[in-house]
Amino acid sequence: MTAIKVENLVKTYTTYKRGSGFKETVKSFFKREKVQINAVDDISFEIEQGSICGILGPNGAGKSTAIKMLCGALFPTSGNIDVMGYSPARDRMKYVQRIGAVFGQRSQLIWDIPPVDSFAMNKAIYGISDGDYKRRLDEMTELFDVGEVIHKPTRVLSLGERMKCEFIMAMLHSPEIVFLDEPTIGLDVIAKNKIREVVSEMNSKGTTFILTTHDLEDVEQLADNVIIINHGKKVFDDTLSGLKNILGSKKIVELTLTEPFGGSEINGAKLIGRDNELNISLEVDTEKQPITDFLKSLTDHVSFKDISVRELPMDMIITRIYSE
Amino acid sequence: MRYLKIYMTCLHTAFSRAAAYRLDFVLGNLITLLSNIIFPLVTVLIYANGAKFPGWTMWEVLLIQSVFSMSNAVASMICGSILWVTMDHVQSGRFETVLLKPLSPLFYIAAANFDTGSIGLFLGGLAMTIISASFTKSSGAWGIILFLLLFLSGAAVMCGLDLIMAAISFKWVGNSRIPEIFESIKEFGKYPLGIFPKAVQVMSALIIPVAVVGFFPASALLGRLDMYSLLSVIPCMLFFIFGIWLYNRMIKAYEGVGG
Q1: What is the distance between the alpha carbons of residues A224 and A197, in angstroms, rounded to a whole number?
Q2: How many CB pairs under 8 A join A and B?
Q3: Residue A21 pLDDT > 80, yes or no?
Q4: How far is CA B57 from CA B47, B51, B133, B221, in A?
């Protein structure tokens, strides 16, 4: 069943072009050139109930603007959004009662007081009964392992602890759909994994998740479907396996060598970047050889003093999609 | 009932926030109180040196100024935060966290940001009102009813003007100096209206009815209210209703900031 249907969605901002430097600043004080920016440019998609949909895109692609319109926080310039039969911005009051949202960069917790006091405020706002509140809070604090953390003032919490509390805040009223805008931004691996674990668990109980991210790993570990937005336009909308068919299973291995390397590939991995003669990047197709096998054989070909393995960067993914 | 319950919870949260910085809470209230007490002291000094506001005794003028402080405190507690919180949230892009709540944004901002810093001002104003009233002639029950009507109208006009300025900030981001204009105009409400030129009297009574903030309700308590002054209740309510309407309308202009 379709939970979200978006048709020809557009969000246009009017902004002013300002030059840099003193002369341009003075000039722009008297005369400013109006510029229309299509942050979201005619995108349409559907999301199934009970699924996890990842909205990917580089910084400034328009994914946060899109998710804010889906949450009812921004009015679209044109186009239609239908979420569970609601038009989010028009039916905002009724609609937001049934959704939850975590904006990675905008806290909903109150800074000076413990999260548990912010939760109590949400309990009153959403009209959660005492029994449901206690049951839900116990369940969530146990899942996130933040039993003690929620009693400390928010301002003393680490970013990871705060994000876990943001999640609890967004989930207390048992929303049917949860929007996550960059939920793992700035978090360490342990905190990221915990959040992904809870999202999977909640999803298995029927909650639909829509998450925006520029971290491919979030999508790989969570999403059933992927939508990629670039410059406000939708460039990809398919299943995760559909994306993998285009990209293959590629990893980037970055090496700091101890002596220069002059070749164009190492053990089947293409050289795709060379910052200087000692810092190189390789693209490894893990379908052809598992990353562990590649790493084991690497020392036979080059000597290095540092190594890191990461996902394909977003700009490379988009370039690949365009070239397909 | 639901909104009352939410308001009480938000009030509790506001006090929890204030209690997080106890010294700041106590000092803030004391400073607000002292700065508002110093002003009536000027009135005392004027009268002590033989000068006066023609037709008004010192205690009558002090009553006007006490009611003004109290009215200011009530408006600040109820909706004083709406202007600054809206400006800040629009500029920083945090307004979307307000829109995620299944409530009227106006109600939520007012409730969640109850200004505990104005409690001292209210209590100080109340104490001074009682003291000043004890030295003046009382007008009886009818005067108290009129006082309450005008007092609420005064709070309504201040809230209305705050709402209008807050609404403008959705489109005109960062207009933080505009409120200073109103703060200056509001000063006219602190004095007997008769001391001003006719044009200022008409403006203070009917156009931007700041006389309702202090002078008119105090006059009702003193039994010196000109019944035509009750007409000023109309623009007060219009400001309030227009403020709410404009604010709710301007929310549509909210554009957020880059994410």
Answers
A1: 15
A2: 87
A3: no
A4: 8, 11, 12, 14
Indicate the SS3 state at residue B208. coil
Phi and psi, residue A208, nearest 5°:
-85, 135
Residue A269's domain is classified under what CATH number?
A: 3.30.70
A103 CB neighbour count, 10 Å cutoff: 26
Statement: the pTM of the whole predicted model exceeds 0.90: no
pLDDT tier for residue B212 given thresholds of 50, 70 and 90: very high
CB nearest B102 (choices: A97, A101, A123): A97
Residues in chain B, total? 259
Q: What is the pLDDT of residues A193-245, one digit of tens each?
A: 888 888 999 999 999 999 988 777 888 888 889 998 988 999 889 888 888 77
- What residues in A contact B254, CB-CB < 8 Å? 73-75
**Cα–Cα distance between A132 and A171 in angstroms, integer?**
12
Domain of B212, in residue numbers? 2-253
A268 in a structural domain? yes
Q: Is there a contact between A221 and A140 (Cβ–Cβ < 8 Å)? A: no
Q: Do the domain assignments include residue A61?
A: yes
> Looking at the 3D structure of chain B, how many domains does it have?
1
Chain B contact set for A76 (CB, 8 A): none
Beta bridge partners of A228: A56, A236
Q: Give tens-digit pLDDT for B114-123.
A: 888 888 888 8
d(CA A257, CA A290): 22
Per-residue pLDDT at A101: 93
List Cβ neighbours of A150 (8 Å cut-off, separation of 6 or more): A114, A115, A116, A119, A141, A165, A168
The whole-number pLDDT of residue B184 equals: 85
CATH number for the domain spanning A207: value is 3.40.50.300
Q: What residue has token string 């109208």?
A: B153
| Structural domain boundaries, residue A254 | 249-323
Of the listed ranges A59-73, A238-252, B157-171, the one predicted with least confidence = A238-252
Chosen from B15, B99, B171 to mutate, greatest number of chain A CBs within 10 A? B99
Residue A296 lies in a domain: yes
Residue of A nearest to B258 (CA): A60
The tokens describing B83, both together, are 């202007």
